[in-house]
Every structure is written in C-alpha cells, then in structure tokens.
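Side project, low priority. Logging it here so it doesn't get lost.
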Amino acid sequence: CEQVLRYIPDDAMNLWVELEKFKENYEEWKGKIRDVYPELKEVRKVKLPDLQRLVQETRNGVPLTDKTVMTYYRAFITLSKPLRRTGKIAKLDEDNYFWQGFPESNSRVLDRRLLIDEPARSLDEPWEMEKVYEVAQKVLGSSTRWSDVEGELAGARGGGWMKDEERGRGEGAG
C-alpha cells in the first residue's frame, strides 16, 4: 500500500492513508479508494456515432498540422480501440475512418507521400492508420513542395494523378 503513495499528489495521499483497511487488506483498500471517487464509476461507453462525429468534425475543420494530427490521433484511438475490442468495427473500418477524418487538403498531400513508398499499391485498399499517422507527423510539419514531388510520382505511376473520385477517395467515400 505504501508504495502506491509515492506516486500520487499529497492531498490524495492524506486522504488515502485515512481510509479503512489501509494497512490491512490491499484489495479492500482499493475498493475504499474507488468508493471515494464515484465519478470514476460513470465510464461512458463508446458508440460508433461518437467516432463518426469526430471524423466528420475533423474532416470539416481546418487542415491538420504535425501538432494537431497528434490530437486527432489520440482522440481517434480513444474511440476506435474500444469499438475494435468489442467487435463493433474491424481493422479495415478503423483505417477507413481515420483516413476520412483528414481534410481534403491534407489527404491529397498524404496520399501523394504514401504513394511514394508504395507506388504499385491498389488504391481500393485504405491506408493503414498507423502508417498514415506516421507520415502525417512528418509531412504536415514539412515545408516540402508537393508540386515538385507530383511530377516524380506521375512518372512512377505511369501517368498523371487520378482524381479523388476515380480513386474512391472523394466526398462520401468510405
């Protein structure tokens, strides 16, 4: 019990040592601590509309930067991971939703950068969330001129860029 007290603020420590069972039974003491914080019992269950709302709000918001993409990622996985764990969404759904949350200006830049790594990739498959996040952190804070990269990619793909609608990444794609 006393080891736990090293890691909490003084005001909480003073309260916790005064609770019954402090030195007697660790499990019962943890129960007493939980009783003192009833708000912790009211954990809200995550639902798919919560995730969809976050995705829509982020997509319709201002373009993300390398800093704000971290905020989006944290908020996203806070909602998506419980939905995955309970079988409400599959990994493919999670990847799709994460991608859909990027404003169009971001998704165009990210798409181009991701295609550099995988030029032969089928555009019918969604990008993996972890890969998108990794690239977004680098690219959205970069001063890279994507117009310079576009020409290089067009040669690698055997032609110019397809329109978002042709790739299935346009408005309403999912």
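Brief comment: The two ends are 50 Å apart (CA to CA).
Revisit when time allows.
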